[in-house]
Design a protein that fits this description.
With about 300 residues, the protein is an alpha/beta fold. It has 10 helices and 13 strands. It has helices at about 10-25, 60-65, 85-100, 125-140, 155-165, 185-195, 215-230, 245-250, 255-260, 280-285, and strands at about 1-5, 25-30, 50, 70-75, 105-115, 140-145, 150, 170-175, 180, 185, 205-210, 215, 235. Strand 5, helix 4 and strand 6 form a beta-alpha-beta unit. The longest helix has 18 residues, at about 85-100.
């Protein structure tokens, strides 16, 4: 079976490519704008084809995806040029749907974000969930996973936490420091995604995944500080406006991280915890590990 991974050079994509090559016999078609960024340990595998691809170049994408049975949609346009990212993501998803239908791909697996649809979501989280709806409305079978912070080396959210903890022994944070989140280790995410290739389903599914504990942003930062043996003091001020936090990110994060994170700041007040049990129903044999196991 040929498995296509769109967005293969991203954090989740790279880890998924590596995991599938190590644990399955599938042929992997890794499509991204930067295929040279794939893990060096996977590049020489005979079952891997790494190709450059632009999701908006529909003829080229159709040529690449011909013969594909399952496709992972891990495309995310939020990056260096984040202006109008919602429109860009919408356009990319619709282009992919047209190509996927033309190539008769049987199953699409998408990774989006947790967040209560009944509440006011940030532009970032709302866009993540909107992409899932576009896929479900246009394709025959879509498994949409939703996750909170993914913990592991290379995760944007986790790299921000690491950088701030390593550089700031004292932090002054607003109320979002207490927002409930359910972080999950990248090793668990890749397990869920891999098993979704063959899990028995006959309709669209939204599957929420998370680690074994619900915590707050404050707690995850304190835990990482403890793991690193660092002293960290966090002071929470309820009336603190949003802009000081954005300024801190600008001052203390590398430019590459800041460009992505500044558009994600508005998501911090949104609770991102698991609210359904579909992950247990479909993948009950996966037992998520404590996030400390992915600290480094």
């Amino acid at each position: 079976m040929t498995i296509a991974i769109l967005g293969a050079s991203g954090f989740v994509g790279q880890n998924l490519v590596d995991y599938l090559l190590k644990t399955t016999d599938h042929k992997i078609l890794a499509i991204s704008r930067h295929p040279q960024n794939l893990m060096t340990t996977t590049k020489n595998n005979k079952r891997l084809s790494a190709v450059h691809g632009d999701i908006l170049d529909e003829p080229a994408m159709a040529k690449s995806l011909t013969g594909t049975t399952v496709a992972f949609y891990l495309v995310h346009t939020l990056g260096k040029n984040s202006r109008n990212f919602v429109e860009k993501e919408d356009k990319a998803a619709k282009a992919f749907c047209r190509v996927a239908k033309k190539c008769d791909i049987k199953r699409i697996i998408y990774l989006g974000g947790l967040g209560d649809e009944k509440q006011k979501l940030s532009k970032h989280l709302a866009s993540r969930q909107s992409i899932g709806r576009i896929l479900r409305q246009n394709l025959p079978l879509v498994l949409e996973f939703r996750a909170s912070i993914i913990v592991g080396q290379g995760s944007t959210s986790f790299e921000v936490i690491k950088t701030l903890v390593n550089r700031l022994p004292i932090m002054i944070l607003p109320n979002w420091a207490y927002t409930p989140i359910q972080p999950i280790a990248i090793s668990d995410v890749t397990q869920y995604l891999a098993k979704a290739i063959t899990v028995s389903v006959n309709r669209h599914e939204i599957i929420e995944i998370g680690g074994p504990e619900v915590m707050s942003y404050k707690e995850i930062m304190l835990r990482y500080a403890q793991f690193k043996g660092k002293s960290l003091h966090i002071i929470c001020i309820s009336f603190l406006p949003k802009w000081p936090g954005v300024l801190w990110l600008y001052l203390f994060l590398p430019k590459s991280l800041y460009n992505v994170t500044k558009s994600m700041v508005s998501s911090l007040p949104n609770s991102t915890v698991v609210t359904n049990n579909r992950s247990i129903e479909f993948f009950g044999n996966i037992k998520p590990i404590a996030i400390e196991a992915s600290f480094n």
